Amino acid sequence: MSAKMNPACKACGGACCSSLVMSLPVDGPADLVQWLTLRGKREANSVRLNVPCSALEDGKCSIHLMRPQNCRDYKVGGPQCIAAINALRPNNAPYLKRLAREHQTGAT
Question: In tens digits, what is the pLDDT along the chain, a chain of 108 residues?
C-alpha cells in the first residue's frame, strides 16, 4: 500500500470499498428489483449491497499501488464517497465528510 494514502481515506477505513452500489433497472423485471432490494438497502434508484472488496484488509487497500482504474478514478469527497460515509459510517459522518472535502482528489 502507498505511504501517501489520502488522510480522509485512512480515517474512514474504506467505506467506499465496504459495499457495492447497483443501479436498479427502471424497466427491469420486478423479481430482480425485489431480489436486489431484499439483499441490500434501497437508496433512491439504487441498492447498496454489503459486498466488501476482497482487497480491503483492516480498512486499507492491500493492492493500492496496483488497484483497478475504477478505484483510481474514485473521487474522494465526491457524491459517491459522501453517500458511502453516510450509509456506513453514520456515527463519524460529520467529521469524515469534512475531512473528505478538505482532501478532495480525483483518486484515492
Answer: 444 678 888 888 889 899 888 888 878 788 888 888 899 988 888 899 988 899 988 888 899 889 888 888 888 888 888 889 999 999 999 999 889 888 876 544
For 3, the grid coordinates are 505511504
The C-alpha cell at 57 is 484488509
Domain limits of the chain?
1-18+60-108, 19-52
Sheet holding 20-23: strands in order across?
Answer: 20-23, 46-49, 40-43
DSSP state of 45: T
Cα-Cα-Cα-Cα torsion 73, 74, 76, 78, nearest 10 degrees, comes to 110
pTM listed for this prediction: 0.75
Q: Which residues pair with 20 in a beta bridge?
A: 49
What are 99's three cell numbers?
475531512
